Task: structure prediction
Amino acid sequence: MKIAVDAMGGDNAPAVVVEGVERARDRFADVEFDLYGDSKLVQPLINDSTRINLIETTEVIEMGEEPVRAIRKKKDSSIVRAATAVKEGQADAFFSAGNTGAILAAGLFIVGRIKGIDRPGLTSILPIAKPGSDRKNFVYLDSGANAEIKEKNMLQFAELGRFYAENVLQVENPRVALLNNGAEEDKGDRLHKEVHQQLKAEEDLNFVGNVEASELLAGKADVIVSDGWTANAALKATEGTAKMVLLLIKNGIENGGLRAKLGYLFLKPVFKKIAKLMGTSTYGGAVLLGLKAPVVKTHGSTDALAVENTIAQIRTMISSGVIEKTVKYFGQVQSEESMDKPDKN
Amino acid sequence: MKIAVDAMGGDNAPAVVVEGVERARDRFADVEFDLYGDSKLVQPLINDSTRINLIETTEVIEMGEEPVRAIRKKKDSSIVRAATAVKEGQADAFFSAGNTGAILAAGLFIVGRIKGIDRPGLTSILPIAKPGSDRKNFVYLDSGANAEIKEKNMLQFAELGRFYAENVLQVENPRVALLNNGAEEDKGDRLHKEVHQQLKAEEDLNFVGNVEASELLAGKADVIVSDGWTANAALKATEGTAKMVLLLIKNGIENGGLRAKLGYLFLKPVFKKIAKLMGTSTYGGAVLLGLKAPVVKTHGSTDALAVENTIAQIRTMISSGVIEKTVKYFGQVQSEESMDKPDKN
Result:
């Protein structure tokens, strides 16, 4: 399999991208890489070019640029070229740590949606932080901060998340939940009440009801579906608070004298484990689900470990055939629907 | 001043309510209490009836009841009777730890809105959890999980929050921010973009821009305004994550052998400080701002300390004259608006 990599995306690119790619290449003998970028900058960073091809591009989409305009104008940018390679079948997946909006736009407009999907969902793989939980992580979508979402988008997210959990995380009959402002089924605004009922009615889904934002990481489900707006607020608050509590502890230790510093030494393994659990490097990148190929991003401040882990994730996506299974499912749903309503389409 | 107290509300009522009231009575010589409840249950709990009057009621609104129906049907419930006493001027404020929906409904339909306020805002006083911050807490509204909110509601929340911060928290020229999905002013859906512009245009507000859910407790503002839906998700995620991180640490200590237990002993003061900072007992209750009198609730699982602190907060609300100042401001805004548009109303 071959992955098209934007070598220029991210705060520490191309260095950490190349380092992560080399680590993944050493780990997986079945993966080949096409690196899109400025060869003057990228070439000197490559230690061993086994299964790494460098493809020259002359433009870079910067972090602050307006995404849609950028992908239209900068045809020779590393993002546009790598996405185009996937569209044309020269690579199996697209990876970048660059401008999020531009990656999403390139995925949507260049790689393209699966037939039957109205809107792709930005999907994060998050840790389950409940002590003693069997499962280590879960699927969370849409975290793209999209406002003005419709019921059918959220139902499609549920199916997309289910396919991902089954095939990539290897969860049998994944539990699907709806992020809502209360546990009971009559909670929520009109949209969330309606989506709850529709998810419940969906026979092929193992719908387990609502989860509240307070229990995001509590392991109540393998897939948590949300509108992009609420998902973004809940995820940011969760990440921000975890960091803040650890910062308060750190501050307490620094100002707590010798006694606190001794305590820190003794508790160091505990803190390290929690920092690893909550760390963004461990779980790979965010996937734009609902596209014809894996389109995966990591955050701009990514390190080589996160790049390596994200490539491992992309490799599992490709080898599991999750996209093909999703295409087949939505193709069937579409043809059933067009049989039900022959006057439509 | 006199506070009408629902003695029957809360998981541990009437015991913790009576205990908290007695503690507050001992602390504040200028406060008198009317306790509404079942005298057979409440009377035996009162150690000293100085400035505590017991008023017999025969009904209780339970936690699970449909709020609006309950306050209409149970005319002799402790909630309805206490709220009615405030409406009729027999008490200056209403306090309960009971059914949240019923307290809000009693506030809205019995105590009544200030003229010029379209919708009251459920207001929490939250801790600032940034090490070294000058200020200890901030005003957060609307956290009532109300969906389908309008621009004008959020503008009114900003003014209500400003009056509260100025008068009750004694913050000079309080910084007001909007909870949004990005820091830049062009972020957000249509509603949040529009509210941002209107807050910016409001001359009497010290508007400092957007804050993200990741920075809810970071002390970026003295008042954070939000639609009820997003506010609820961000607050729940923040509280849930703080608890979860502390639980992970606890679990790590329990499973970390002697070394971890020693570490815990040394770090105990640090953990205690953080638990106190994040604890719900410290900051008093949630206020339904925009009503003609203070209507304040604490969570159902409240303890006597939270009851005592909430009464301290109500006392400051009454003595600061925050309600009177708010009434005056919105009265002026209304008469200015009716001069601007003489054909309206």
Observations:
- Chain A has two domains: 1-117+290-345, 118-287.
- Residues 183 and 194 of chain A are 15 Å apart (CA to CA).
